[in-house]
């Protein structure tokens, strides 16, 4: 099976593993996708014809070609190391971005909410205003009472002046 779609090439032969070459970018994050190599990949991408499957000659030729083609472990290690380092850098960048977004979110939420000191200060001011309001109502009632007494005294004085 061979397929060539997008920026990756997929090829699969009988007795071989699937490999994807090339890089593509993820549709939602913009980060590149790296291909992974199978640790037990022999590197054989031989495509067999239908008549050759299962015959002893094709089996023997596969065994001899697999034995003669030893994988270059150093190259595989270097490729895997580069891939791993690239992925580590991407993870660090994503973690840094996440931390920045969390800090920005915390700052925006913190601006909307008054601090505890300011909140206690406002509650204390509200309490003082309520006490002043009660005092004002009490003083109005007392003032009304004094006005009523004053009018009563004026009536008494005016009667006394008429009688004399």
Task: Write up this protein.
The protein has about 160 residues and is mainly alpha-helical. The chain has a domain at about 1-70. It contains 3 helices and 5 strands. It has helices at about 55-70, 75-110, 115-164; strands at about 1-5, 10, 20, 25, 30-35. The strands form 2 sheets. Strands 1-2-3 form a 3-stranded antiparallel sheet, with no helix packed on it. It starts with a strand and ends with a helix. The model is unreliable at about 1-30 and about 45-50 (pLDDT under 50). GO terms for molecular function: enzyme inhibitor activity; phosphatase regulator activity; protein kinase binding. Keywords: Coiled coil, Developmental protein, Repeat. This is PRKG1_interact domain-containing protein.
Query: Uncertain spans, ≥5 residues at pLDDT below 50?
Result: 1-28, 44-48
CA-based shape:
rod-shaped
Number of strands: 5
Strand order of the largest sheet: 1-2-3
Written as H for each helix and E for each strand, in order along the chain, the element string is: EEEEEHHH
Helical content stands at 55-70%
